[in-house]
Amino acid sequence: MPVLSEDETAVAEGRRTGGHTGAVPYDPTIYLGLPDLLRDSESVLSGYLSLSSSAPHLFGDRLDDFAGEVRALLANRSAQGIFWDWPGDTEVIMARKPG
User: Fold this and answer.
1) DSSP-derived 3-state class of residue 31
2) Smallest Cα–Cα separation from 44: which of 72, 82, 80, 77?
3) Contact call for residues 74 and 41 (beta carbons, < 8 A)
4) pLDDT at position 7, please?
5) Taking 90 as the threshold, does the pLDDT of residue 92 lie above it?
6) For residues 34 and 56, is the Cβ–Cβ distance under 8 A?
């Protein structure tokens, strides 16, 4: 089992449970982080356009111009067209009830 961070230990001990100070009703057993992603240029553009703050309809009739500029920028940054993407600190905690 990996060494738990201070935050993970606090959760396991019940110190970070939305104000509840009792023990957490499970024993954390496995922490699985999400792997890094490799994306191509179209995936990068699609991911950006999937955000509510940059949804396609917000660009109006300039969407094609924007997409072209993004593709050109990405092509200048990576000749292979491959980009690393970090999925964040999302963790899956697999646990079992004690006893």
Assistant:
1) strand
2) 82
3) yes
4) 55
5) no
6) no
Give yes or no for residue 4 having a pLDDT over 60.
no
Q: Is the pTM of this model over 0.85?
A: no
Q: What are the structural domain ranges in the chain?
A: 6-96
What are 44-53's contacts with CB under 8 Å, separation 24+? 44/70, 44/74, 44/83, 44/85, 45/70, 45/71, 45/74, 47/85
* Contact call for residues 51 and 58 (beta carbons, < 8 A): no
Place of tokens 């200048």: 76
The answer to whether the CB of 4 falls within 8 A of the CB of 12 is yes
Whether residue 18 has pLDDT greater than 90: no
Report the distance separating Cα 92 and Cα 32, nearest Å: 5
